[in-house]
Amino acid sequence: MNTNVLFEKGHGKGALGFFLLCVLVTVASMILASVIQTDFGRLHVSNVTFSNYNGIPIRAKMLRPDGVSAQNPLPGVVYIHGYQNNRETGDAYCIELARRGFVVLNIDAIGRGNSGIPNDPSEKNFDPTYGGLSSFHYLRSLPFVKQDAVGMMGHSLGAEMAYEVALKNPDVHALVITGFAYREDATHKSPKNMLMILGRWDEFRERMTGTRDIEKEWMGTKQTQNAFPVKNPEFDVTYGNFADGSARRVFIPATIHIQESHSPAAIAQALQWMKNALQPPEKYWIAPNSQIWQVKEWSTLVAMLSCIGSLLPLGLLLLRTGLFKPVQGPVQGTYSCSARSCIRFVILNGLLMWLFLPLIFLLFAIHIYVVSIDGVFPMMMVNGIVWWFLCINLMGFFFFRRWFKKKASKEGITLNELGISFNEKRFALDRDVVTRTLVLAGILFLFAYGLEHVLEGIFIVDFRFIFPFASDLTPYRAFLFLVYLPFIWLSFILTGIFLHGELRRPMKKTWQGTFFAWSASNTFAMVAPLILFLMIQYIPLFAGGHIPFVGPGGMCIAFVMNLFHVIGVLLIVTPVSTWFYQLTGKIYLGATVNAFLVTWMFVSSQVIAPPPV
Fold it and tell me: Are 76 and 103 spatial neighbours (Cβ–Cβ below 8 Å)?
C-alpha cells in the first residue's frame, strides 16, 4: 500500500473533485427531499413555535395545502411521533395527509427535537401528553383550519398521547393510533372515529393488548367489546358511523413496531380514515396508495452519507496544507492480524458486545438504587448506549494489554507500530501533533454540522432514514454535546486500538484496496455481533410470535430496537476511522472525528425524558 502517493503533487484534483461532488450530492438530495415534502410546490411547509400550557416551548412543522385560507379553511390533523424520535419520523403520514387537503401540525413532542425540556413528572403542571393537548388547541385555533374537523394521529407513545387527548376532548373528531392499542376506557363513541393500526409483529403488542396472538384474540377482548358498537367484530372492517363518532376499525399490517411509521399499507389506511371522518374537499383527493414520501426518506439518507463522505477528501486536502502536514504519516511496521486471529478477536469482541442488556440493567440499577444520574445526563436511552459502549471498550482494552505484552516480548511489536504512540520505545503523545489533530477534527466536524445546519434551515429537512440521525442543535443540546463528548471520545479511541491495532489486516497492493478491505473487516467486526443479537430477538418473533428479551415495562425491547440505529451509526463511521488511520498512521484523528459525529447524532436526535416503563 502506498498512501503517501496521495500527498504527492499532481494528486490534488481528484480529492477536490470528489469533495465537490459529495457536497453537490448533499445539496441536491436535500433539495429533492424538500421538493417531495412540498409536493412539488403545492404545499407550504414552515416551522412554527408556540407555548405549551405550562410554558414549555413546542416546535412543529406545519404543512398547508395551496388555497387554504380563513375564507377557505381545511380540516386539520396533529401528528405526534413516538418516544425515541422527532417530528421528521411522522413525515410519511404528514406529507401524504397534506397532499390530500389537510393542514398538518407535525410536532416535536416535549423533550424531543427542538422543543423544550419536560419538567419533573412529580410536578403539578407536568404534561403527560408532552405537548399533544396544547398542539391540538393551537391547530384548532388557526383561522384557516376548520374547528369542527380536527383529528389526532400518533405512533407508539405519541399514539398514547393522541389517544389521551382524544379520549377527553370530544372536539377531536378523528383518531388514528399506530403502534398502540385502545384501552378499556374507550367506549362506543369515545374517542370519536378511532382507527387502530398495530403491526403483526409489533414487539410491544403483548404489553399493549394483553394478548399473545393479537390476530386470534384481540377482537374478542374486553377493550374491543367496550370500544366497538357491534358484537364479534373483525379486522379490516369499519363499524359504526362517522357522523356520530362511533366509527371503529382495526388494521394489522405485516410489520414490526418501528416500521409502522413507514408502512405504505398503514399510511393508506390512515389517509382513507381521515378522509371519511374529516371530509377534505374532493379536489385535493389522491388515491391512498399513490405515495411519494419514500423519495424524501431515501434522499435524506443520501444527503447524510454524502455529507459525511465529503469529510474523507476534505480531510485529505487539509492534511496537504502546511498547518496539518505534521499529522500525516504512513501506517507503521509490518504487523497484520492472521485470519485465524481475526476470527478469535471478532468472537471475543462479539461476546463483549453481547453484554448489552446486562450492562444497561446495571446502569439503571445504579441510577435507581445508588445515585440518580439523569440530573447530569438527562438522555437515559443515550446513557444506556454510551455506558455499554464505554464499558465493553474498557474491557477490551484490558484484553489488548495482555495481548500486546505477549506480542511485544515475542515479536518486538511496538505501540508506535500500532498507531497508538508517537515514540518507538514507549507510550508517548506528541503535543504539537495531537493539538493539530484535534483542530483538524474540529474543522471537519464543523463543516459537516454547518452544511446540515444551513440546509436544514433553508429546506426544513434533516439527516434521517427511518430513525432520526442528525439535525441542528438547540443551545441546551449543544451543552449536552459537551457533556457526552468525553465519554464517546474515549470509547472511540479504545475502539481504534482494537480495529487498527489487534485487528489490522494485511495491506493490499493499492491504497484503495487497503481502504475497502480494512473498512469491510472493521465494519464486520463492529456490526456482525449486533446483527446476530437482533436475530436472536426477531427470528422467534417472526417464527412463533415469541420475543425473548422483554424486560420490565418492555425496557429490553426498547433498547434492542435501538440497536438498529446503533448499527446504522457504526456502518457510517467505521470507514471514517479506517480512512484517517490510513492517512495519519495513528488512531486519533479518526477517533476524534467519529466522536464529534456520533455525539452530534445522539444529542440532536435522542429523547430527553424518562423511559416509559
Answer: yes
